[in-house]
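Internal tracking record. Fields below are filled automatically when a chain is submitted to the structure queue. Please do not edit lines marked as system-generated. If the sequence contains nonstandard residues, flag them in the REMARKS field before resubmitting.
Queue: standard
Priority: normal
Entity type: single polypeptide chain
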Amino acid sequence: MKKLLTLFTIVTALGTAAFLSGCGDDDNGGNNQAAVQFAPLTQAGLTAQGATYTINIAGQNPQTLTFPDQNHYILKDQTGATIESGTITSATRSADGNTWTVNVTPDQVQGQNGVGGSAVITFTANANGTFTFNRTGAAPQSGTFTVTGLGGTNGGGTNGSTGTTGTTGTTGTTGNPTSGGTTGNTTGNAPASLNGHRVQIQTVTGGAGGQELLTFTSPTAFTSDIGATGTYTYTPNANTAALNLTYGGTHTGEHSELTLNFTSGTAGTFTGNQNFSGSDHATTGNFSIPQ
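SYSTEM-GENERATED OUTPUT FOLLOWS
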């Protein structure tokens, strides 16, 4: 039977490899070097909404891990199908700063992995590392990962005390040896999360036409003024974001895959696909986030 990598596997693995070259132990006038800081300094940085972790385990296809917010995760296979989603119950960083241990509880969804555990994520560089995944009742699995979209949330310094996340830039820059900080973010105009927000959609071409008001009631659920409920994923990247909607209720089977282009923090245009009446429809339009 095909083995599926689960998030807790990923998180476990990502944390075990970062015991890096650290403090110098020769007497050098008290100027001992600190370990090189690669891992994000906070749980919010580790689970940045613009980040995508690509997980590789020997004998298995690559899988991708993303975070709708810092307390939830989504794991997908190489086809883009969700194989596990759930809640991060705790995340702790090691004393050397480069290893995160993350405990997770998967959602109990039919057809998806539902067994929890922990993942140890070790950063050996700013954008890659190793992991060990410990799932309850199963043998540990180990592999490697690469990550994009952290956008300057890593520690970055060589002798610095801690890194800091800046407010400008898109990729982040490495701090000097005395401060060890980084600057940068990946948010741009796109908000980090839609949870608790409303989005007014105005279809201009294609699609069903007219307006639709979406209310995002959790990191994964929404309601619509057309009488629908459903689930969604939202992945921001600077001034754009991918918004995928899966409708339920009286609109079960319908879905939309939209690319939002933010011209400001509260408005913009969109392109993508709206599926209704059993067929796909290419669509464009405008949107706003009411205050």
